[in-house]
Specification:
The protein is about 30% helix and about 30% strand. By secondary structure, it is an alpha+beta fold.
């Protein structure tokens, strides 16, 4: 005959089994939901009707360290069609607002905002303070902009020129085109990209240069990328439709010598990115007489006062790059 303790024990055991069964069912449900989401969400994003999300997501992956991920699902033609979906969408006018101005440092920083983008503009009054930083691990890997700034004793930095990355690993070890630092050629490879050069007087030029031109034209700092946005006060020749909306970086110079850095956030819901025409309008508004696009995408970064001040879309943080432009302290 069962005692009261036996009955109580059996009831507790039965209740424990029910709770255990419910907990297992919950775990199985969560596991199924997670697997289902992993499988279906990418399919919905890639082939679903949400064009803005699709363009942002596909463009982000395609221009990331691992473009092979999206290539496993879509052909090159499909990828191009998706990321160029909004090529004809222009931000038109944009707003600008000064957020930091330090006369002693000679640096002014402004927020800019257009219809499809948000970003930062940095104005450097003394152009000879702008230098090219080059990875000390050439041929092996690049460095982060924060590393360049710290190693050179600089106070600010922006990503630089293009680099060879055939495997999509993001190692950033080999710059393309002509790279010059302190008047010495660091790297040269035959390229159609124009050279962004600063001479001994701090004048910025954008033109095709050979290694022989470095000494002839007193070039002190240089790296390479494209397209040219403004040359000698005239709008550059580029195909706006070729360049999709994306995170952007660019450099320019005003007639008074002021260097202009621009970084546009992109591949984010708050800032899809900018086209080349957007960059042109920004530099034209700031009075640039020469301006050129820099390597964008996950490379787009502005570093100042010990931190990244734009919004990186890459969850891995700062990208490893072979070159950067940095701003040295004001010695005047």
């Amino acid at each position: 005959m069962a005692t009261g303790l036996d009955v109580q024990y059996r009831r507790k055991k039965k209740l424990y089994r029910k709770r255990k069964f419910k907990f297992k069912r919950l775990l199985w449900f969560l596991l199924f939901y997670a697997i289902f989401s992993i499988i279906t969400v990418p399919l919905i994003i890639i082939w679903g009707p949400f064009n803005a999300v699709k363009s942002v997501t596909v463009g982000a992956i395609y221009s990331s360290r691992h473009p092979q991920v999206i290539k496993a699902f879509l052909s090159e033609e499909q990828i191009n069609a998706i990321i160029h979906k909004f090529d004809n969408v222009s931000s038109n006018d944009f707003e600008r607002q000064a957020i930091s101005s330090d006369a002693s440092s000679g640096i002014t920083i402004e927020d800019i905002k257009g219809r499809t983008f948000q970003g930062k503009v940095m104005l450097i009054t003394h152009p000879k303070r702008v230098k090219v930083a080059v990875t000390k691990y050439s041929g092996v890997k690049g460095e982060r902009i924060s590393d360049y700034v710290n190693e050179m004793g600089a106070i600010a930095g922006i990503n630089g020129g293009g680099f060879d990355d055939p495997q999509g690993t993001g190692s950033g070890e080999t710059p393309l085109g002509l790279t010059v630092h302190n008047g010495e050629i660091v790297k040269y490879s035959d390229s159609d990209m124009p050279t962004i050069a600063l001479d001994k007087n701090g004048k910025l030029s954008v033109e095709t240069l050979s290694p022989d031109d470095v000494k002839k034209k007193d070039i002190v700092e240089a790296l390479s990328f494209w397209p040219v946005l403004i040359k000698d006060g005239e709008k550059g020749k580029y195909d706006n439709g070729y360049w999709s909306i994306a995170p952007r970086s660019a450099i320019g110079q005003k007639a008074d010598g002021t260097i202009i850095f621009v970084v546009i956030n992109g591949r984010q819901m708050s800032s899809i990115g900018a086209q080349m025409d957007d960059l042109y309008k920004i530099f034209h508004e700031y009075g640039a007489i020469n301006a050129v696009n820099l390597d964008g995408g996950s490379s787009a970064e502005m570093f100042y006062d010990g931190k990244v001040i734009n919004q990186l879309w890459d969850s891995f943080g700062e990208r490893y790059l072979p070159t950067a432009f940095v701003v040295m302290p004001n010695k005047e």
